[in-house]
Amino acid sequence: MCTINSFVVALLRFTMPTMNKRAKILWGIAIAPWFMILWDTISNALTNPYWEQSNPLFWFFYSVVSSYLSFLLYAGISHVILRYVKAVKSWQYVVVMFSVSFVIYGAVTLSSFMSYEAYQQGLVEIVKNNTITPAGYIYIAQFSLLRAAIYGVCFLVFWVITVKNTNQIRMRDDQKTLE
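Request: output the structure for the sequence above.
Response:
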């Protein structure tokens, strides 16, 4: 993971200073969700192999599109919050995206399990007699935390692409005008 992140940062430092703000945002929207897309695609392939499905290509594209759209939804909500509090630091981006994705994903997962009479994932009994078990709540919290952490990494990549170099360029321009 560190080598991929180092490669992305090196690539962006090479290309970003010459781009305008809109191009950086589009570049960030195009690149940042791929960590989540790769995670979802690989985890879906391991838990429910595409090649055993009736239409494996459909499920692969479904995984990619749903991951991308969920990133855009979480990023949009996070963007509104970040603009409201005027945050520009990387840790603020990560914390907001982590919080937003944890709350939304956890709520959606909880509501989806409410409709089951009984449900078991591996050895964990999540729903029993139309109620979510304590082990089910722990399972949902763990899975939501993992996904929120990955979304936090995605938003950190987005910050590196769109915000970090922009602030450095602004500071250099401000110094030139002062001289």
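The chain has one domain: 23-174.
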